[in-house]
Specification:
alpha/beta, 7 helices, single chain, eight-stranded mixed β-sheet
Length: 255
């Protein structure tokens, strides 16, 4: 494992996806335990994507997490998908984690509700339940959640908003095997904003695979800017980025 920092962001590079996922899960377990000792409950926001498979599997298998005191939220959802659609991010998280562990509560974004009303409802939930921990990925275009570069705002006044998705983001869903073609991918979604994500007390970002190497390089070596929304992580006081050899392959060599 190689470890370094970029601004405030701790970065760890592992040889394989499996090692990366296990290491992230161990750190997340410790963070949950710390929050529970201090507060008695833990509010967590989860990313939904194949890039999260390893860490979610490790968390689901954990024997040490006091799940009944953990309250789950997720960070983005397509607008207009049928409630049972397997591509829905809430359904992904239910299959990967939410239905496998005895969570205290689960609060999902409703993909079938009116976008404006659902954004208001979910924003109110987030205000009532400030996030302690957020688990994130980084998109091929550098997005966090569905904050693509053309809609990302580091000072966004909203907590949840409706957005249009750029074609790089939509094509990633095809690369991930979630949709057969670009035409099938929805064009709009609801997303937690950058400030909503960065408000969490601790952030754990897990980013494997060669398809993410360019975005990782921009995140760590480019300017902090909404043009690469993931650079916001470099300003978070308690954030960690977990990479595998493939996603780190374009970074400058570090000793």
């Amino acid at each position: 494992m190689t470890e370094f920092t970029k601004d405030a962001l701790r970065v760890q590079v592992y040889a394989t996806r499996a090692e990366m996922g296990r290491a992230a899960a161990r750190d997340i377990e410790a963070a949950i335990a710390q929050v529970l000792r201090e507060k008695g409950r833990c509010n967590m926001i989860f990313a939904a994507a194949p890039s999260q498979n390893e860490v979610l599997a490790a968390l689901a298998a954990s024997k040490s997490i006091d799940w009944p005191r953990v309250h789950a939220f997720h960070m983005d959802e397509y607008i207009g998908l049928p409630a049972a659609a397997p591509q829905g991010f809430a359904n992904f998280l239910r299959a990967a984690l939410f239905d496998k562990v005895p969570l205290g509560s689960v609060h999902c974004i409703d993909s079938t509700a009116g976008a404006e009303a659902e954004a208001a409802r979910y924003s109110a939930l987030l205000r009532e339940n400030p996030a302690d921990i957020v688990l994130l990925g980084i998109g091929e275009n550098g997005h966090l959640a569905f904050n693509d570069p053309h809609v990302a705002q580091f000072d966004d006044p909203a907590l949840v908003k409706a957005v249009t998705l750029d074609d790089t983001c939509r094509m990633q869903q095809v690369h991930d095997g979630c949709f057969a073609s670009l035409d099938e991918v929805p064009r709009t979604a609801l997303t937690l904003t950058i400030p909503a994500l960065m408000a969490a007390g601790q952030a754990f970002c897990v980013v494997p695979a060669p398809t993410k190497a360019q975005a990782v390089r921009r995140t760590l070596e480019g300017p902090v800017s909404p043009e690469c929304p993931a650079t916001a992580l470099r300003r978070h006081p308690h954030a960690a980025l977990y990479l595998d050899a493939d996603s780190a392959s374009l970074l400058a060599r570090r000793t």
